[in-house]
């Protein structure tokens, strides 16, 4: 599985370059440098986080599967009919997880990362969540109960994730009958939009049948406005992940009584007991000045652009090197490597907004490189 992920990285990179070039030629560029860096950093961190939360990602599923089925594996799930049925049932479970992530505050806290970008392009597809499995695993347990093997679940997850990559673009128009049946660029643009009629719509992973069945389908009619209802301006990758959890913590702390504190966790995002109903601004990304960059005024000089590119590709190469040894590495050995790579991602965001200079960046990179070398060298020597 890890080798497949490594193999797909250059394919995704090539497609993003093609989309960017096409946008320039059509005079409809959908990319911003700082936003793209932010998206790609979240992609790297989300992949690294899977090592940390592996127990939630697939461990609990495997335990439940083996408790119910022991060592038995139904060969039906490995036939084309079983693979197709597994995809459909997975998409049904994923619909309800995705819906919960938009309609329940504590779930939204993990998912908001994917919606923070004010642009819509293929790099947004890589802006994946890092904390989702901690609570989200429970939505996939029905698949373990019906006998879908853990390795088949992993394959299904990868298929759906790879499918969803191409739908994150503004350059593919509506597709007629295809839009009616499957998740498509037009359908998913609606999902990412903050237009009032588009909020909380089109949750399906690759099928639109569940949205039509449960009343959450909305076709694309007017131009989409992207991001969160309260715009998130930070390029700090760590704050992007933690900001909504901090917001919920503040809501719980300020709520009166145990019932209202519970509601602050499980009511729609932005709920507060001061008004006893969901906040009008339901997509609440914490307001902060941490790592803020205003797209209309920020300029990155050529020197800074080169430094950012060098930093990002260094992180990407080190991440790929780590992934290539992930199955052999011990948990306690991997943690300092992951922490070092996340620190380098944070430093990239800090460099973009001017919170770090080049010498400070070099110092952080040197410390991180030593930590990575000390822990990784025994495996690659």
Secondary structure layout:
Elements: H1 2-25, H2 33-52, H3 54-69, H4 80-103, H5 105-111, H6 122-125, H7 133-136, H8 141-145, H9 150-165, H10 177-181, H11 185-192, H12 209-214, H13 237-254, H14 257-266, H15 302-324, H16 331-352, H17 358-380
Helix pairs in contact: 2-15, 2-16, 4-5, 4-9, 5-13, 13-14, 15-16, 16-17
Number of structurally distinct domains: 2
Portion in helices: 55-70%
* Basic shape: globular
Strand content: under 5%
Task: Provide mean pLDDT, rounded.
Answer: 89
- How many strand elements? 0
Main pleated-sheet profile: none
**Helix/strand/pairing class, anyone?**
mainly alpha
Can you describe this structure?
- The chain has 381 residues and is mostly helical.
- It has two domains: 213 residues, no CATH class; 79 residues, no CATH class.
- It has 17 helices and no strands.
- The protein is globular, with a radius of gyration of 21 Å.
- The protein starts with a helix and ends with a helix.
Brief rundown of the structure:
The protein is mostly helical and 381 residues long.
Features:
single chain, 381 residues, mainly alpha, 0% strand
């Amino acid at each position: 599985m890890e080798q497949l992920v490594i193999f797909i990285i250059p394919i995704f990179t090539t497609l993003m370059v093609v989309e960017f070039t096409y946008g320039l030629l059509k005079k409809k560029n959908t990319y911003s440098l700082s936003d793209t860096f932010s998206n790609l950093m979240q992609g790297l961190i989300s992949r690294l986080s899977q090592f940390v939360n592996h127990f939630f990602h697939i461990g609990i599923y495997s335990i439940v599967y083996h408790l119910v089925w022991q060592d038995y594996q139904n060969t039906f799930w490995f036939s084309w009919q079983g693979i197709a049925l597994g995809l459909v049932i997975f998409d049904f479970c994923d619909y309800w997880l995705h819906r919960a992530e938009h309609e329940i505050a504590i779930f939204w806290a993990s998912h908001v990362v994917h919606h923070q970008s004010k642009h819509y392009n293929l790099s947004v597809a890589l802006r994946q969540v890092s904390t989702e499995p901690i609570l989200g695993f429970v939505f996939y347990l029905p698949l373990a109960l019906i006998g879908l093997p853990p390795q088949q679940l992993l394959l299904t997850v990868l298929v759906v994730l790879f499918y969803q990559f191409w739908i994150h673009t503004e350059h593919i128009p509506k597709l007629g009958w295809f839009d009616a049946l499957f998740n498509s660029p037009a359908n998913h643009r609606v999902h990412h939009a903050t237009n009032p009629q588009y909020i909380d719509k089109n949750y399906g992973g690759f099928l639109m049948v569940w949205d039509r069945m449960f009343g959450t389908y909305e076709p694309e009619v007017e131009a989409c406005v992207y991001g969160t209802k309260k715009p998130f301006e930070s390029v700090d990758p760590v704050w992007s992940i933690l900001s909504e959890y901090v917001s919920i913590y503040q809501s719980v702390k300020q709520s009166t009584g145990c019932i209202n504190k519970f509601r602050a966790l499980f009511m729609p995002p932005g709920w507060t007991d001061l008004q006893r109903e969901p906040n009008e601004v339901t997509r609440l990304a914490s307001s902060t000045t941490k790592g803020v960059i205003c797209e209309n005024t920020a300029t990155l000089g050529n020197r800074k652009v080169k430094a950012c590119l060098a930093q990002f590709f260094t992180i990407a190469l080190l991440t790929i090197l780590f992934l290539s040894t992930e199955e052999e590495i011990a948990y306690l050995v991997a943690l300092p490597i992951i922490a070092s790579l996340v620190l380098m991602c944070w430093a990239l965001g800090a460099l973009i907004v001017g919170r770090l200079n080049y010498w400070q960046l070099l110092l952080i990179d040197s410390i991180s490189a030593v930590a990575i070398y000390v822990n990784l060298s025994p495996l690659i020597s």
